[in-house]
TrEMBL record:
Swiss-Prot/TrEMBL keywords: ATP-binding, Nucleotide-binding, Phosphoprotein, Transcription, Transcription regulation, Two-component regulatory system
Annotated positions of the 4-aspartylphosphate modification: D57
Domain Sigma-54 factor interaction per the UniProt entry, residue ranges: 137-340
Superkingdom of the organism of origin: Bacteria
A GO term for molecular function: sequence-specific DNA binding
Listed InterPro entries: AAA_lid_NorR, CheY-like_superfamily, Homeodomain-like_sf, HTH_Fis, P-loop_NTPase, Sig_transdc_resp-reg_receiver, Sigma_54_int
Protein's recorded name: Transcriptional regulatory protein ZraR
Pfam families linked to this entry: AAA_lid_14 (PF25601), HTH_8 (PF02954), Response_reg (PF00072), Sigma54_activ_2 (PF14532)
Record-linked PROSITE patterns: RESPONSE_REGULATORY, SIGMA54_INTERACT_4
Lineage summary: Bacteria, Pseudomonadati, Pseudomonadota, Alphaproteobacteria, Rhodobacterales
Length: 415
């Protein structure tokens, strides 16, 4: 049940943590153990791989499990949480369940009962696609895993697929992954991009066009919303007549208003949307933006900037908070430019966002300067104490709660 599952354990008690770690690893799980809320927050926000479950003690030395869960809720949907609590914390655990946590167990507990509850939790949660040949495609967030689940389901049928999403969201990657996972993977994958070739009649229906060359493979029509009314009618006729291959289409999020205005055929929409896969924008999935940065850095840095050894924490925070109107395409372009300009050894925010550098005739306001100075000092203190908020607060001569509030205000995770 737990074999190859990736589980984050948040437990400050050495004996309890060691016991849970050993038993979970005996069950075949991969476990990442953190003893502090601040360290766990960073690990869950920017995981190295999709997280199947988080086991979290409600009482932690630098905060609480409830504080950790609530903080994660503010920026997205956390992985399923199984809370551990004493008798006095049952009310708090019930509150967390109402807020969206998956389950809780009360100390002391039988290990067999704990493992059964955890297994049920993991099994009921949507699984990421597993297998070395097909690693995560969209990221590590819950939203990304939902997309991967829809991809897996779409790969098992031959119905048309409609992929919806803004620029740079990876619609072509989704189509290709469905094809590669399907029983058509050995047949051709033919792409017709109507954003580049507006003549759909020639690109799709002429001799040597998409329908003529796809055979039993997959025909992927990108920017389908750009089709003329006549070409929409031709495509509808071809779908109804049937053909050996499979049809997938993609466009932005503009189809519904086009249907209401009569600019796109509702009949064609319902034929294409037998299976619909919406892709949420990257700015709603900040953990996936950081994941994508790490993936692209690993591929591009050795070739374009071999002297760089990694990505700074500040750079990851900047990527997390950016709006990314161009999606992953924008991120890749910024990274390539940043690799060319970076002086190393770590990639910095100004490498990706040079526009944030003050111009010669500009000066920061006192408030901006104060925030920048505070952020630098907090980062230095956290680095010296290895993320221990209590110890960092002592170095900065402020209360732990004050430090935590400042970290939230300045967008620091503590990792």
């Amino acid at each position: 049940m737990l074999r190859n599952r990736y589980i984050v354990l948040v437990e400050d008690d050495q004996i309890m943590g060691t016991s849970l770690l050993q038993r979970l690893e005996l069950e075949g799980a991969q476990v990442l153990w953190h003893k502090q809320m601040a360290r766990a927050l960073g690990a869950i926000r920017t995981p190295k791989k999709p997280i199947d479950a988080v086991i979290c003690d409600i009482g932690l030395p630098d905060g609480s499990g409830e504080e950790l869960f609530s903080t994660l809720l503010r920026t997205g949907t956390p992985p399923p949480f199984l809370f551990i609590t004493g008798q006095g914390g049952i009310g708090q655990a019930v509150r967390l369940i109402k807020s969206g946590a998956a389950d809780y167990v009360t100390k002391p507990f039988e290990m067999s009962v704990f493992l059964e509850r955890l297994s049920l939790l993991v099994e009921s949660h949507e699984k990421p696609f597993q297998g070395e040949d097909f690693p995560p495609l969209m990221g590590v967030s819950v939203a990304a895993r939902r997309i991967e689940s829809l991809i897996d389901k779409a790969a098992t049928s031959s119905h048309p697929v409609l992929i919806l999403g803004g620029p740079g969201t990876g619609k072509d990657l989704v189509a290709r992954r469905i094809h590669d996972l399907s029983d058509r993977s050995a047949a051709p994958f033919v792409t017709v991009n109507l954003a580049r070739n507006a003549d759909a009649k020639e690109a799709l229906f002429s001799p040597g066009g998409g329908f003529d060359s796809v055979g039993e493979g997959t025909l992927f029509v990108s920017a389908v919303s750009k089709m003329s009314a006549g070409d929409q009618a031709r495509l509808l006729e071809r779908i109804d007549a049937g053909f050996e291959g499979r049809l997938m289409a993609a466009c932005g999020n503009d189809l519904e208003p086009m249907i209401e205005q009569g600019a796109f055929s509702s009949e064609l929409f319902y034929r294409l949307a037998r299976t619909e896969i919406p892709i949420s924008p990257l700015n709603t999935r900040p953990e996936d933006a950081v994941w994508l940065l790490q993936q692209l850095f690993g591929k591009l840095a050795p070739r374009h900037a071999p002297e760089l050894t990694g990505i700074s924490g500040l750079c990851e925070e900047a990527v997390r908070s950016h709006d990314w109107p161009g999606g992953g395409r924008d991120l890749r372009a910024r990274l390539l430019r940043g690799l060319a300009m970076a002086t190393g050894p770590l990639l910095q925010p100004t490498d990706l966002f040079p526009e944030r550098l003050a111009k010669p005739d500009e000066i920061m306001s006192l408030a901006e300067a104060r925030d920048a100075a505070e952020k630098a000092q907090i980062i230095a203190a956290l680095d010296r104490t290895e993320g221990q908020i209590g110890e960092a607060a002592k170095l900065l001569r402020i209360a732990r709660t004050t430090l935590w509030e400042k970290m939230q205000k300045l967008g620091l995770s503590g990792s």
